[in-house]
Amino acid sequence: MKKFLLQLVTAVLFLLPAALKAQDIVEISNGNHNFFNSALPTYTAANDSASTEIYTAAEIGRAGTIYSITFKGSWYSATRNVDIYMVHTNKTSFQNSKDWEHVTTADRVYSGIFAFPGYEVTIDLQVPFQYNGIDNLVLVVDDNTGIASGEMLNIECFYASSLPHGLEIHSNDVNYDPTHPGNPVNLTVELRNSKNQIWLGCTSTCPPLTNPTAS
Q1: pLDDT per residue as tens digits for the range 112-159
Q2: For residues 1 and 185, is the Cβ–Cβ distance under 8 A?
Q3: Half-sphere exposure of residue 50, counting CA atoms within 13 Å on the CB side?
Q4: pTM
Q5: How far apart are CA 209 and CA 73, in angstroms?
Q6: What is the Cα–Cα distance from 119 to 74, expressed in whole angstroms?
Q7: Which DSSP symbol is given to 3?
Q8: Which of 75, 107, 135, 163 would be a feasible disulfide site paired with 93, CB 3.0-4.6 Å?
Q9: How far is CA 158 from the centre of its chain?
Q10: d(CA 196, CA 41)
């Protein structure tokens, strides 16, 4: 009996962190799930691509630890090799096609496979991001696959503003490096007034802020 109780307690303690993590999901969307953008977060019709998107403090609505990100919307499947970065910013929009937010390898929260099996994919961050709840959040997805997919992914997006909240770059010849932005020569760069609808997994210890405002 004692052995059984010990095994039960051990199992509960093992599963408890995952259960706590799953308690809070922050949805950033307009509530509709019928608008798609094939360029964000990755332009799968090109060999390589990169995107950067701004999410405001008002949209996130809380401070705390982000441990996962979910994308939805595609009927197609694709497997891409990506690096994902998160940083704080005081930017509220992108000014032009060269207005990339600088990131470093220290800002990388995930490196590996972005396997989109169909309608939904959740990526567990290898390095959880400590979001301060005050600044805006920049999400950078760097696709280094090196070969185009057969179908374009169409991931749910929404128009958050008349100002550009998204910026994407793609090429079949040059693998753009967001840690060394420079001048994107021989690359296709586009500003986007839309951005991905995302679902952020957040630890239950991050209570909603009172009237959060974007920087």
Answers
A1: 988 877 678 899 999 999 999 999 999 999 999 999 987 777 888 888
A2: no
A3: 25
A4: 0.82
A5: 29
A6: 5
A7: H
A8: 163
A9: 14
A10: 7
